[in-house]
Amino acid sequence: MTPADLIVIGAGPAGTAAACAAADAGLAVTLVDEAPAAGGQVYRAPPIELRIGPAAKSADQRAGDHLRAALAASTVDFRPGRRIWSITGRFRVDAIGPAGTETITAPRLVAATGAHERVVPFPGWTLPGVIGLAAATILLKAQAMVPGQRVVVAGCGPLLAAVAAKIVKGGGEVAAIVDLASPTDWFAALPYLAVRPSLLAEGLGWILALGTHRVPIWFRHAIRRAEGDSSVERVVIGAVDDRGRPKNGPERAWDVDCLAVGHGLIPGSEVPRLLRANHRFERLRGGWVPVLDVDGRTSCPGLYATGDGSGIAGAVPAALSGRLAGLAVARDAECPSAKYDERKRAALLRKRSNAMRFADAMAKLMALRPGQVAAIPSETVVCRCEDVTRSEIEFAIAAGATEVNQLKHFTRCGMGPCQGRMCGDVVEELLAAHVGSREAAGHWTARPPLRPVPLDAVLGDFHYDDIPVPAPAPL
């Protein structure tokens, strides 16, 4: 068992910034992440075999290198390759690492667990060859591999152009981009995109590359179905309205070997939920988020949350929020070397406020569209872990399920290996249509294991003779 002053979970932009800020103030900080290197999803480090020279690196790759260099230069005890499965008390963190089970304890904990992808179900979405935009990004960034030779890229938000441009750069063909948003939606976002000129320029570069390869973009369209026998072979799309509801009109189709699709991001707030911190529903921020003060304190003493796990905002606001949270931990711990400088704190808050203008514009494009959920066909699988269809969910609601955890008991929806991460947001939206609001529908109750872990890894080596058996009670 390893003691520390602070445990930070997640080594993306937010977690790394929080860990370094707290360590610089003099705290003994342990930073834990499941990946083999720091950076999170956005700054994911490629394998050594695929690393390239500085001149050929993208802005994200350079930012990731800078993040990892800052972490290496700090006093933070960084532990990559750890899968956390349980968090109890204030605070005991149990993980599975390269050498087996590990336990870390500290009086304070920062949850910087990032986000996971939302895919609103449609017929055929469980076919092999249908992957998320985030999964496609991992293949392209970390493995220099295109997800397919002929791909349809669909969904909403800036990842559409990013993924499509990287596919054509990698030698794949993008048959079409299918965007839920309209050109008007994107033009409305332009003034806010100008706040981040470097990202705007990068986005324009993606569009130019796609235009050069004559990739068609179908605005205000969505996937109707994916077809195929053993894998995806054909993708069919149709027009939708501004709420994502299908409209009458012709369908269009392409023969493909891959469909990369994503409908925004959902905060990974399992840790604050597991520790029973207060939450609220914010559609713009991606769903259920912990209730925080401006420095990242939750309602649970000693627990802080930051980054996309506390509300979808992107890498720059995440890093600023992480630094604010790390400084707040040092102040709350009354660290002797933590110098409280209100001017520096105010400057960080201003930078974050400015960065949130861009974040809000992107979040609006990625927000869940209720009409899209309402249009899910009845026999479509919603919970892919347990093969629960929409009709089974609706039957359970008709039978009296009025809250998502009750719905889970009725259907096993959300009980699979992903613990509801893939289906929870959509299931809650379906239930909310019957009970009046997402607040009334509620959210899954988090419980360990937070991630699937092999039972033998948790148990370790033991002999049954080692199990203490109390003597029988006297008669």
Task: Describe this entry's structure for a reader.
With 475 residues, the chain is of the alpha/beta class. Helices cover 35% and strands 20% of the residues. The chain is built from 15 helices and 23 strands. The chain has helices at residues 13-24, 59-73, 133-143, 159-169, 183-193, 197-212, 270-274, 315-332, 342-366, 370-374, 390-398, 404-411, 424-435, 438-441, 455-459, and strands at residues 2-3, 6-9, 29-32, 77-79, 83-88, 92-97, 100-105, 109-111, 115-117, 130-132, 150-155, 173-179, 217-219, 221-227, 234-239, 252-255, 258-262, 265-267, 279-282, 287-290, 303-305, 381-383, 388-389. Strands 4-3-2-8-21 form a 5-stranded parallel β-sheet, covered by helices on one side. The protein has a 5-stranded parallel β-sheet with strand order 10-17-11-12-13. The longest helix has 25 residues, at 342-366.
Q: What strand order characterises the main sheet?
A: 4-3-2-8-21
Separate helix tally: 15
> Which structural class fits the helix and strand makeup?
alpha/beta
Biggest sheet: strands, sense, closure?
5 strands, parallel
- The helix content is 25-40%
Contiguous low-pLDDT stretches (5 residues minimum) are none
Question: How are the SSEs ordered, and which strands pair?
Answer:
Layout: E1 2-3, E2 6-9, H1 13-24, E3 29-32, H2 59-73, E4 77-79, E5 83-88, E6 92-97, E7 100-105, E8 109-111, E9 115-117, E10 130-132, H3 133-143, E11 150-155, H4 159-169, E12 173-179, H5 183-193, H6 197-212, E13 217-219, E14 221-227, E15 234-239, E16 252-255, E17 258-262, E18 265-267, H7 270-274, E19 279-282, E20 287-290, E21 303-305, H8 315-332, H9 342-366, H10 370-374, E22 381-383, E23 388-389, H11 390-398, H12 404-411, H13 424-435, H14 438-441, H15 455-459
Parallel strand pairs: 1-7, 2-3, 2-8, 3-4, 8-21, 10-17, 11-12, 11-17, 12-13
Antiparallel strand pairs: 5-6, 6-7, 9-18, 14-15, 15-16, 19-20, 22-23
Helix pairs in contact: 1-8, 3-4, 4-6, 5-9, 8-9
